[in-house]
Structure formats: structure tokens, C-alpha cells
# Entry
Amino acid sequence: MSKLKAKILVVDDNAGIRATLKLLLPARFSEVEIISSPKELMNKLQMFRPNVVLLDMNFEADINTGNEGLYWLSEIKRHYAEVEVVLFTAYANISLAVEGMKRGAFDFIVKPWQNEKLFEVLEAACQKHENVPPAKQESAVSQMLWGESASMKALHQMVEKIAPTEASVLITGENGTGKDVLANEIHRLSSRSGKEMVSVDLGSIPETLFESELFGHVKGAFTDAHTEHKGKLEEANGTTLFLDEIGNIPIHLQAKLLRVLQNRSITKVGDTKAIPLDIRLICATNKDLPQMVSEGTFREDLYYRINTVTLHLPPLRERTDEIASLVPYFIEQFALKYHREVKGIAENALSLLENCQWRGNIRELKNRIEKAVILSEGELIQATNLQITDSELKDDAVCTTQGESLQDAEERIIRQAMKKYNGNLSLVAKSLNISRPTLYSRLKKYGI
# Structure
């Protein structure tokens, strides 16, 4: 097999591993450099300019930022963003390697490694920028996936009615339910879709910067205001403004926002000139705004101004039918991002997901699939890849995370319930949400 014209830099403090890789890698790559300490890393990067760094996760280095591998990964990506990093890790540190991939690593190799697997990953990392169009290097923008539940069908119909209008919209729902995705969908269906929606996470802006970030400021308006700054409201002129976590806006700034919405004009901090404003407003919150109004922490007049239409996104636990359509979408997204061959999910693994409590809603499901795609070794995500614990499941759910069959899991759950309720069949059947005749047949089947 011909060599790939590429530069590989290995960073590992194990002399045996360095000696082995010094023999292996030059057979497949045109230039290979190997160093024993990350203290040499930044200088070597500047001099050698590798395509890929194979980076060990742990060293003897005196780094006080937690895991050394993650620290040096961050340093490489900060100074040389175009260099791909493959993490070299022991099996016990896989969770750290997964975190590393979320921070920008291309992939990880577990020690002891298989040579062909090592070559395959390093070659894919070298060829990434040659073979993958720039638009495909990042995962696709999230899209609204409508489920079949009555609540989501009704929501879908409402969105199609109000999206083309100029009505202000308030989206409510728990964290992670996809309020930002719904806002994007409303904007996409509106007459303003030709211009990108401007989004502001009000929960992440320090209170001291609220006025400047929202309304902008002129040069010299306050200390360190060395240049004029355009606020988010002005940036949204002619398009949709999405104010996420509207419940976080301080009470003393609510009056100013209300005036902007009423007058359709803004005045920058330190200025007297009014700027006409043409926006379509969408807000979102996980807070109980009516309760905040009654407590005096949210202005009643502002509340009515922002919610001409209120849309509520139910939590994922109330629309578990959507999981079957969300999972393939996330798998495709992350298989592309992490260069995995994952194409689907095993039936018992999907059943497991449908029986979780999902306190973090769709965001939690997305993160779970991301991690499972990274950990998966084949074309199907298995139950073990999900790493779901009993505490994350519904009380009556069947857990098969340790590879047991559904029948074995069912038997275990029934035995647990019989023990918990001291053999009271009525209570056992009720707790398992099955009829007494069904329970009798299961008891006979498993010899309980």
C-alpha cells in the first residue's frame, strides 16, 4: 500500500508505545515525528506543521486544569484550528475521550490498539479537509420535527396559521424542549425568512451589559465605550428578533423594552436620536410569567405586549412517540460529524429510550445519541452504548443496559415488584400497568 502524503505528530510519554509507533507509522505516512512530552508540543507544531496530532490523554506534566489531554487539545485547537487531533486513551478514560471529541478532537483510539483501526482513523483525519466540502464539516442546523401526538399536531396547525403574520409570539416550555428550534421554524415560515433571525439568550447576558447589548451605545457613552456598538434590537431591523429566557430581563429594564415595542424605535445608550425599528418579536421562557406578574417581578403590560400568541411545547416525556423520528435524525447528524458508520439503533435500545424520564427533554436525548454514536463500534447503536441507568428510567420501565434480553429484564422487574409489594398481586399488576390475568401468565411463564 502506498504512503499517504501527510505529516503525523505523536505525543506520548510511554517509551514502548513511541518505539512501536516509530516502526509502524512511517510505513503508511510520509512524515512522522514523535515526542515524549507535551512541553515540546507547541514548538513542534510551529516547526513541523503536522496534519494530525496523535495525542496521549495523560502525562506527568504539571498541569492544573484537570486532564492533561483535554488541556493540550484545547491549546492545539486554539492556536492551530486546522490541525486534526486524535486522542490516545486507555479504556478507563473513554468518557474523557468522548468529552474531547465534543471539544474538537477528530476521534479517539483505545489502547491497546488494532493497527488497521489506528491507520484507518489517522488516514481519515488526514483526508478530512480534502474530501469533505466545508458546508458538510459541521452538523446540520436543527430542524423542527413534528410528532404524532395530539398536542404536537395542534401546535403544528397553530404555527402554520400564525407564522406568516406579524403577531408577537411567546413560546413556553421546560428547558431542552426545543423552544429555539420552534422559533426558527416560525421565522422560516414567515415573510422575513430572507434575512437571518437574530437570537439573544437573555439568561447569559450579565445585568451590567443588558442595555448595551440590547439597545447599543455610542462612543463615549460610558467607560471603555471606545467605539459605537450596534445592539441586538437594531441588528434585527427588518427580520425576526428571538429573545430567549425573557423572564430573566431585570425589572428596571422591562419598561425600556416595553417603550421600544410600543414606539417601534430605539435610542442607544448615551444618545438622544431615535432609530426606527421594524422587527417581528418571538420570546421564550421556562418560567411562569403569570406568576411573576402576580409577584411583581414581571411587568403585566410587557407580558401582554409579547404574547399576542402563546405556544406551549410539551416535555418529551409527554410526546415519547417523537423519539423514534428524532433518533435517526440525530444519528445521521452525529455520524457525519464524528465520521462513524452508525446507520441506526437496535430495537431494544430504542425501547429503552422510549422508557426514560427525560428530565432534560430533547436536549438530553440529543446529547445521549451524540455520546452513543461516538462509543458505537458497529452500524447499530446498542443498549450498552446508551449507558442508561435504572434511575433514569420510568418506575415501570424495563432496563436492558447491561445486555440482558427483554425477557430477562421483564422477569427481573416482575420479581422486584413481587418483593416490593410482598406478593400482593393487585398492587404488583397496578405498579406494572398490566392486568391481573396478564400478570398470572407472566408468573407462570417465569415460574415465580
